[in-house]
Structures are given as C-alpha cells and as structure tokens.
Amino acid sequence: MKKAVKTKAKVLLVDDHAVVRDGLAQLISREPDITVCGEASSAEEALTAVMKFQPDLAIVDISLGGVDGIELIKNLKAIRPLVALLVLSMHDEARYAERALRAGASGYVMKREARDRILEAIRAVLRGEDYVSERLQKSIVHQYLHAAGGEQKSPIDRLSDRELEVLTLLGKGLSSKDIADRLHLSQKTVDSHRTHLKEKLDLSGAPELIRFAFEWVSSQESL
Question: Which tens digits make up the pLDDT trace of 113-172?
C-alpha cells in the first residue's frame, strides 16, 4: 500500500523587490512542508495571483512601490477570506503591526529577523495562530494595562489607515493630485484627508503638515 504524500502548504510572495522575493523563495525551497506557488511585485499583481494560485499563505510587504499594504491586506481578505496573511516588512512593527493585524493579517515580522524566526512565523500563521515579536507582545500588554491611566498615545496612532497612507505619500513628495491618482481617489477627498491630518496632528497649516510628513517618512526609513 502506497504511503500518502503530505501536501505542502502553498505560499505566495508579495514584495516589490525581486531580491527579497528570491531570498524568501530560496529559504522556503529548502523546507519539506511549504512551497512557493507564485510571486507578485505589486498590489494589482497580488490580487490576481491570490485568485490564480489560491495560496494557503501570502507573505506581504507593508509598502509596495508607495502603495499601502494595509489596504492590500483588506482587499486580499475580502476576495479570499481563507488565505492566511503574514507581513514581512522593514517598517517598525510598533507603528504598523497593530494596523496590519486589524486589517486581517495574522502575523508581522521585521525583515531584519533571522531566517529561523521568519520560518517560525510562517508555520505559526499557517497553523492559524497570530505571530508578533515578544517585544511587541509586551508593548501591547503595556498599552492595555495603562490605557485606563490616561496615558497619551502618539498623534500618529490617532490617524486612520487611509490618513496614514496620505501622510506617508505627502512625505515622499507627492502632491494632492499625485496622491489622488495613486490611490484612485478624487483630489477633493485627498484634500479632506489633509484637513483631518492637520486637525489630528495639531498643525496650523499646509507647510507644517508637509514638514511633519517629511520628518515622519525620514524617521521610518532610518529605522
């Protein structure tokens, strides 16, 4: 009687850097229980690929050529609810992990983590578990325990996912029209987001908003 062959879990790689996808593909190819079923370099390609390859897991960067990965996570879960999502990003988990988890991801790992840690995260998410670093777990617990004490969060934490996306694109030098085209929004909607940003960040005008946005983006890129 033939022994049943165990099916490998299928993984879709979504990152706009080919070298990152190649590195992940090589890492996964050595494992007996997981395999790469496809790759995508943009949000548009990712949405097509998830339907074509029907992966068990998609590993997604939080930023794809300036496009917000948070929105992509929401869209991927909308079109394929059963797909597990793991974010692998250079962006600080303290700022983005909770947003990614709320959007539908099950895990968040920094790209600087060791290969064994990345494989650990992949397998945990495939088992249906949530995965974040021990440091972030402690931070979440700290925030929960001190919330009743009235501790103030960072102004960034008050922004919606879309507002943070607009702020990031402003910090990359895009105009309202450019942002509207990039996000498929009207310029009026983008201007409305800019107004809300000034209010939530307590900024007096457009120059202060642009300066804040540039400084925010610079601080994230230097991490």
Answer: 889 999 999 999 999 998 987 776 655 544 544 454 555 567 787 888 888 888 888 888
| Helix runs in the chain, H state only | 18-29, 43-53, 69-79, 93-103, 115-126, 134-146, 161-171, 176-183, 187-200, 206-221
Comparing CA positions, the residue from 74, 71, 60 lying closest to residue 17 is 60
Decide which of 1.20.58.410, 2.40.160.40, 1.10.3720.10, 1.10.10.10 is the CATH code for 155-221.
Answer: 1.10.10.10
Are 132 and 107 spatial neighbours (Cβ–Cβ below 8 Å)? yes
Distance CA 186, CA 172 (A): 19
Integer Cα distance of 43 and 76 in angstroms: 9
- 9-133 is a CATH 3.40.50.2300 domain: yes
With 0.90 as the threshold, say if the pTM is over it.
no
| Residue 207, both tokens | 């120059």
Give the position of tokens 């929401």.
Answer: 74
Q: Is 155-221 the same fold as 9-133? A: no
Q: Which residues contact 41 (CB under 8 A, 6 or more apart)?
A: 14, 15, 16, 18, 21, 64
